[in-house]
Amino acid sequence: MAKKVKDAIDKGAKRAKDATDNAAKRAKDVTDRAAKATKDATDRVASGAKATADRVEGIGDNIRKSGEKLAKQGNSVSMKVIEHAEANTREAFAAMRAAAGAKNPAEVAKIQGDYLRQQGARARPCPRDRRPDHAIRQGCRGLGEEGLKKPPLQGGRPRGQACPADG
């Protein structure tokens, strides 16, 4: 009888060990899949941040070239260009920070799309502007149009959206 009890205990212990080994294997598989998914998501976010940085660099090049043309028109226009470039740079870095902190690739894509729409709106002054500084705005309009002629910057203010300068 002692042998039967010992065999039953051994059989139960083997079943418990097999169940534990199976659970450990499944937990390891789940952990490995989660680690791979996390690495893939991190790689996608890093790729999105690099793409954003590349776009910002291209936008900066376009603004710099346009700024060189406008520098010949005087200090007043030059100051407006510098303020425009500063605002674009500030917004670009804010977008890059947001993209770097995004939790998923869809959030990175949304951040990039929002940034490009906003940048387009900043780059194109409203054609209806009739304020006293109209000549300066005309000069800046040339800056915006020149900057939009070349990739990576495309687009503009979404249809139906009011001009921010119209207040």
How would you sum up this structure, described in words?
This protein is an all-alpha fold and 167 residues long. Helices cover 78% and strands 0% of the residues. It is rod-shaped. It starts with a helix and ends in a 19-residue tail after the last helix. The relative contact order is 0.11.
For the biggest sheet, the summary is: none
Please count the helical segments: 4
Specify the overall morphology. Answer: rod-shaped
Overall average pLDDT: 76
Structural class: mainly alpha
Q: Tell me what portion of residues adopts beta-strand conformation.
A: under 5%
Count the E strands: 0
Radius of gyration: 29 Å
Poorly predicted regions are 151-157
Assign a percent range to the helix content.
over 70%
Termini gap:
95 Å
Order of helices and strands: HHHH
List keywords for this structure.
mainly alpha, single chain, 167 residues
Short description:
78% of the residues lie in helices and 0% in strands.
Summarize the topology.
Elements: H1 2-71, H2 75-100, H3 105-123, H4 134-148
